[in-house]
Fold:
Amino acid sequence: GAGVSQSPRYKVAKRGQDVALRCDPISGHVSLFWYQQALGQGPEFLTYFQNEAQLDKSGLPSDRFFAERPEGSVSTLKIQRTQQEDSAVYLCASSLGAGGLRYEQYFGPGTRLTVT
Amino acid sequence: DAKTTQPPSMDCAEGRAANLPCNHSTISGNEYVYWYRQIHSQGPQYIIHGLKNNETNEMASLIITEDRKSSTLILPHATLRDTAVYYCIPRRGSARQLTFGSGTQLTVLP
Structure:
């Protein structure tokens, strides 16, 4: 079946521009996660949704970062007034249940954002 | 969550077993050990997890020491497609997100 898809795969933005990154999770998956991965490092948690509810946004680095999942399926991560330090790969993951050990996370291929 | 120590890189000959160690000496009793891998330009992929018993699936085996302070992921017959960064991740039962470290870059050599 289809896995997690993300678009665009690559995005170049000039400093100060707004960007929107899309995630299509596996159909029926309740949980959705966003991670940020800087070059040469492991992914770092940004935010978590259970259906349409954003239950944890403790990892969002600033108020320029905003995520939504209005209908409990597709999610968008928006970054306003991009800065060079926002350059990273943004990964989306989904899992079947509402968190916990029983449900592994399935990751998309990521969106590589480069801010110039 | 417990801190982990993994070697930054390892090589393995194709067809041989790859043994990837992970130290998690501060792991608590309710933390499982998860392993994910990330092939270049792809998202991480779940491999296996365990609490205190050894586990095996179609991808790998996981050996956890009796004191649970360390574990070893074993790929029994490594192929070139197993070249990836391997992450060892202690995880509480109540935790939702994964906390990745730096991982081990495994390179399988022909």
In short: The CA atoms of residues 56 and 64 of chain A lie 16 Å apart. The interface with chain B takes residues 4, 31, 33, 35, 41-45, 48, 55-56, 59, 91, 93, 99-101, 104-110 of chain A (CB under 8 Å).
